[in-house]
């Protein structure tokens, strides 16, 4: 089991990075147009930013603030995951 986790840590980190990029694109008009979707959605970006983005579920400060906070929260999570992935190297 440990060997499988060691083999999958970089692909899982890459999958999280791609999912986060798509989630942040869904929260911008140009990203929605590029992805061919019909409307903006902050929910995927809020979920990928948890636990840092939990206040976004309770307070509505507008779309610009939500996008900025979701991006920062996602960056924090990506940094923590990168640190954990590199810990065993």
Description:
This protein has 89 residues and is mainly α. The chain has one domain. Helix 1 runs antiparallel to helix 4. The model has no long low-confidence stretch (mean pLDDT 88).
Brief synopsis:
69% of the residues lie in helices and 0% in strands.
Strand content: under 5%
Number of domains: 1
Order of helices and strands: HHHH
Please summarize the sheet with the most strands.
none
> How many β-strand stretches?
0
Provide a count of the helices.
4
C-alpha geometry: globular
Q: Which stretches are low in confidence, meaning pLDDT under 50 for 5 or more residues running? A: none
The chain-level structural class is mainly alpha
Please estimate the helix content.
55-70%
Termini gap: 18 Å
Rg measurement, Å: 15 Å
Mean pLDDT: 88
């Amino acid at each position: 089991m440990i060997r499988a986790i060691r083999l999958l840590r970089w692909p899982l980190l890459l999958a999280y990075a791609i999912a986060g990029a798509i989630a942040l694109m869904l929260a911008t008009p140009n990203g929605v147009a590029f992805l061919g979707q019909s409307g903006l959605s902050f929910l995927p970006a809020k979920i990928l930013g948890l636990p840092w983005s939990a206040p976004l579920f309770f307070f509505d400060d507008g779309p610009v603030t939500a996008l900025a906070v979701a991006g920062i929260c996602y960056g924090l999570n990506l940094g923590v995951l990168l640190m954990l992935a590199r810990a065993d190297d």
